[in-house]
Amino acid sequence: MELRILAALLFGAFISCVTAISAQGSRLLVVLEDEAEKSKYGQFWLDLEERGFQLTYRTPKDPSLFLFQHGVPAYSHLLILPPGKSTKGLGPNLTPNLVADFLNAGSNVMLALSGEQSVPSAVGSLVAELDVSLSPDRNSMVVDHFNYDTKSAKESHDVLVLSGNDVSSKKSGVADFFSVDGLLAFPHAVGAALGNASPLLSSIIKAPATAYPYNPKEEAEGVEDVFATGEQLSLVTAFQARNSARF
Fold this sequence. Notes:
It is built from 5 helices and 14 strands. By secondary structure, it is an alpha/beta fold. The protein has 2 domains: about 25-110, Rossmann fold (3-Layer(aba) Sandwich); about 130-245, no CATH class. Strand 1 (about 25-30), helix 2 (about 40-50) and strand 2 (about 55-60) form a beta-alpha-beta unit.
């Protein structure tokens, strides 16, 4: 169930980032921790291929992974799936500077994170370039003791449940890619705090008012010095560069 929910969220987020085959082309590079994980998102890949995307799969350590060829982007889009538990970074060919250059060259980037794995410091450095801050505790995930799935997260409260009406877009002319009839589940979400300086940065879906980041590995009964709470936490964030590329 969780994988189906995650795949649906990925599809909605990716299509909201790229509503059609961009002017740069249809080439999509998918970076995943292990080739074996590809089967977990089978329907997601089929949906993208039906929309005309040409998918290439690479792992972070694959020597054939590169974003540029002859000085120009080798792909039109980059999708980075959640890093593995043992991942310390994204490798020499996915440094924050290279990904930023890829975005500045007009290509689109989508990054998916999961609270089940520690967030590599390289990922924190990457999103910081866009004025997005992740919790200093790289093992934290967003929990909510009032808005959670009572079946899959009866004790952990780490599968958030939001009303479809709460996540629908209220802006005129903006498509409601996340609007659903009923409820929408967010398993093991990683929350981000957004800077206020950039008009190019916006939160697509915010956490409920009673949500906060928590490290399940800690045994402390209370939480002190909370990174951000409630609607200060963005669950899905979008950045549109001045060249119309999107992250």
